[in-house]
Amino acid sequence: MHLLLIEDDLDFGRALQGALKAEAISSEWLRRAGDAPRCFHDTAFDCVLLDLTLPDGCGFDLLARWRRAANAVPVIVMTARSGLEDRLAGLDGGADDVIVKPFATEELISRLRAVLRRYARQASEQWVVGALTIEPRRHLAQLDGQALKLSPREFQLLLELAREPGAVVAKGALSQRLEPLGDAVDFAAIEVHISNLRRKIGAERIHTARGIGYVLVP
User: Fold this and answer.
1) What SS3 class is residue 117?
2) Hey, how many other C-beta atoms are within 10 angstroms of the C-beta on 172?
3) How far, CA to CA in Å, does 48 sit from each of 44, 68, 136, 154, 189?
4) Above 50 in pLDDT, residue 42?
5) Which residues pair with 76 in a beta bridge?
6) Model's pTM, two decimal places?
7) Helix/strand/coil (H, E, C) string of 60-100?
8) More confident: 211 or 85
9) How far apart are CA 215 and CA 194, in angstroms?
10) pLDDT tens-digit map of 44-81
11) CA-CA distance, 20 to 27, in Å (whole number)?
């Protein structure tokens, strides 16, 4: 899981990044609204943790801009405002969840998993896409009830495609998501891994959108 953290408080931001890292969750940290990306179509973020009070603007304005641009990236709003009115404003403004500061790391992680399950249209920790069953936390995948022997990279690719079954996932997005903290994976390497994955799960289950990316067929 790779997150975008937008939070201006230095102490809180450092502590939160450390807590996320301890849970094997990587993150990129920004402190200003003006540094936030305008679009997420080709970026690698699985979710955004967005503080409402930023030195150069309001988190609500960022959220509204992303939703107007049809950016569906999951967003969890973090706020010190505990009033019902503020929480409802966040949800009605396009946030997927709202968490009130201070919060326990365990609660945030649980909310993250729930939001990402909904985004992937999955109701539990076990994702079902046609004859495929995937358990992200256990790094397990099955086809028709039989365990698949996938390399770590093949499993990562399958997981990324399974987040949006039936939709085209761009090569550029896959390239970044596979190495969120390092150099993007070469397109040629992705093609090799896709070929190996097709051999193991059936070529008919992964379609190529020529010049764009790949589709996992539900």
Assistant:
1) helix
2) 17
3) 11, 16, 19, 25, 28
4) no
5) 49, 97
6) 0.62
7) HHHHHHHHHCCCCCCEEEEECCCCHHHHHHHHHCCCCEEEE
8) 211
9) 11
10) 688 899 998 899 888 888 888 888 887 778 899 998 87
11) 8
